[in-house]
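Async update (no meeting this week)

Hi team, since we skipped the sync, here's where things stand on the single-chain job. The sequence we agreed to prioritize is pasted below, unchanged from the tracker. I ran it this morning and attached the output directly underneath so nobody has to dig for it. Comments welcome in thread, and please keep replies under the output.
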Amino acid sequence: MQNQSFVTEFILLGLSKNPYAQKVIFVVFLCIYIATVCGNLLIVVTIRSTPALLGSPMYYFLSFLSFLDACHTSVFAPRMIIDCLYEKKTISFGQCMTQLFAGHFFSGAELIVLTAMAYDRYVAICKPLHYSSIMNSRLCNILIGVAWTAGFLHSTIQLLITFQLPFCGPNVMDNFMCDLYPLMKLACTDTYVFVLLIIANSGVFCILIFSLLLVSYSVILFSLRKHSTEGQKKALSTCGSHIAVVVLFFVPCIIEYARPPSDLSFDKILEVFYTVLTPLLNPVIYTFRNKEVKNAMRKLWNI
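Output:
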């Protein structure tokens, strides 16, 4: 912590310097954030209150995914929204590190949950006779435990990398949140080795997992030719939702972390997408394409 003694806070430039644009951003993203949290928590409460859904591993993982989405967007969105009301946007060093840790913690856990959901669909479609014996409650709980552990280890590594950086002067961050690459630009040292560590810990890892998931879903889709027409439609609908969510989660992360930092404004768009928009789209994709969840919502909430 001695390296950071010269910098006690960072100044965030936000998404725009235009006062009118900031008011528009405030209204738009406040509505998006409320819809995101309410939509994800609605899915969590519906599944947790419906024994038929909670007893299914697929919906068990879906409820956990929705919980992670609500938490992940809550790490970044509220501060970004509130900062739109202030001309000078500052964040203390401790708050910056907390935001960095929490963001990568929930995204790391979500990565494992998406992998677990893909495995669940693989077993259900490719090994249906052994599904109940393989995807039992014990395995589901173990996978959730692995997700928490992976998220903690991933974010801890990112934090340890950041703590090695000396911040001795510049503290203006051209961003709306604290993340690794914006912090790298403010470090008073050569960050070449640190960038390689980030690419290895985030970018390469995301590419490997994403490639594995694409292969697994390809195997699943290929195996559907042995199923009935009705079974194919149901499986394609479920897998289509999963694939869409996987692409929405992994592609922005790969583009963001699998390359060296840049000064492109496109980076901000990517960060907005995977911290604010993706958590909103996930419940929309799963709810609108899933009759069981919609029926459970109607019964539970008398819609």
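Quick observations from my side:
The mean pLDDT is 86.
The CA atoms of residues 32 and 280 lie 7 Å apart.
Reply here if anything looks off.
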